[in-house]
Design a protein that fits this description.
mainly alpha; single chain; 7 helices; 0% strand
Length: 240
C-alpha cells in the first residue's frame, strides 16, 4: 500500500499546486475579488484531467503492487507445501503404531531444522503484505462486497494462525529440550512438544480445514496471476 499512497499523495499535491497557480494567475487578470473563485473552462478541464490522471496512475501502481505480492505469495506457498511435506515425512517415520511420537537422537537435528523452516515461513506469510488491501475483519463483515480472492485470503489466514502458533511452540520446546536438566521440566517440555507436533500433523491432514484453505488460496493466487492449472487427463480404460 505504500506505493499506492505515495503516488496518490504526490500527484494530488502536484494537482493542488497547479490549481492554486491557475487561480492566482486568473485572479491577477481580474479586478474583482469574486473572480478568484470562478472556474473558467480551462481551469475546470485541468482540475478534472488532474484527478482522472491521478486515479489512473494510482490504480496502475496498485495493480502492479498486487501482482508483485501475488508472485511472492505464490513462491511462499510452494515453499510452505514442500516444507510441510518434509515435516510430515519425519513425523510419520518417528510415529509409533499407537499414534505416539518418539524422536530418536539421530533425528533431533532434522526435526529441529524442519520446525525452524516451517515456523519461519509461517511468520513470513503472516507478516507479509497481503494481496487484498482489506483487513480480515473488514472482509468478514463485507462478505458480499469483497472479491473472491479477498475471501479466500482471509479464510487462509484464519486457518494458518493456529498452525503457526503450534509450530512456534513446537520449535521453542524442541530448542529448549537439550538445555533442561530437571527431569520434571524435561518431561513437561517433551510432552508439550509431542502435543504440538500431533496438532500440526492433524492440521496437515489432506481433508483438514487448513489444507483445504491452503489449496484454495493457492489456486486463487495462480488464477489471479493468470497461471493455468495443469489439466488432469483421464487415462483409465472405459468400457465401450
Amino acid at each position: 500500500m505504500k506505493i499506492l499512497f505515495k503516488s496518490a499523495v504526490t500527484l494530488s499535491f502536484i494537482a493542488i499546486i497547479c490549481i492554486a497557480i491557475a487561480l492566482l494567475l486568473n485572479a491577477m487578470k481580474e479586478l474583482f475579488i469574486e473572480s478568484w473563485f470562478v472556474f473558467n473552462k480551462s481551469i475546470l478541464v485541468g482540475v478534472l484531467s488532474g484527478l482522472v490522471l491521478t486515479c489512473i496512475i494510482a490504480l496502475i501502481h496498485f495493480m502492479q503492487y498486487q501482482r508483485e505480492n501475488a508472485k511472492e505469495r505464490a513462491i511462499q506457498l510452494s515453499e510452505f507445501q514442500k516444507e510441510a511435506a518434509a515435516f510430515q515425512t519425519i513425523v510419520a517415520e518417528c510415529s509409533a503404531p499407537d499414534g505416539s511420537i518418539a524422536i530418536p537422537n539421530q533425528r533431533q537435528q532434522e526435526m529441529g531444522s524442519a520446525l525452524s523452516r516451517l515456523n519461519e515461513l509461517s511468520i513470513r506469510i503472516l507478516r507479509g503484505e497481503q494481496i487484498s488491501p482489506l483487513k480480515n475483519a473488514t472482509v468478514k463483515r463485507l462478505k458480499r462486497l469483497v472479491s473472491p480472492i479477498s475471501m479466500t485470503e482471509a479464510a487462509f489466514y484464519t486457518a494458518l494462525l493456529p498452525f503457526a502458533e503450534c509450530c512456534h511452540a513446537a520449535e521453542q520446546a524442541h530448542h529448549m529440550l537439550p538445555y533442561l536438566t530437571d527431569k520434571t521440566e524435561t518431561e513437561k517440555n517433551r510432552s508439550e512438544l509431542v502435543q504440538n507436533l500431533l496438532e500440526m500433523q492433524r492440521s496437515l491432514a489432506p481433508d483438514g480445514a487448513f489444507v483445504t484453505a491452503l489449496l484454495q488460496y493457492q489456486h486463487d493466487v495462480r488464477r489471479f496471476l493468470g497461471i493455468k492449472e495443469p489439466r488432469i487427463i483421464d487415462t483409465a480404460p472405459h468400457a465401450s
